[in-house]
Amino acid sequence: MTSPIDPATVRRAILSMAGSRGPGKTFCPSEVARQLADDWHPLMGCFRGCVRKLAREGRLRVSQRGRVLSPEVPWHGAIRLQAGDHSNGE
Length: 90
Known about the structure:
Elements: H1 7-21, H2 29-36, H3 44-56, E1 60-64, E2 67-68, E3 80-83
Antiparallel strand pairs: 1-2, 1-3
Helix pairs in contact: 1-2, 1-3
């Protein structure tokens, strides 16, 4: 059994991936989750919460099929992430 991964670790990992990809480049949340745990599927609920908070802060842009999604409405299906307008340093 693996130990649970806290939201702060998830947040740092997401921001690190966004920073390493650079402006305009997207990635899937599961790419980050796979780096944190072999059994990454259970992490996705925590990831969605962290992603939503980072989007509200302007640190991430969330999109689906090329359309930017609001962090204030429910999301369904696969999403892509990229650095937001306020993504510099934590």
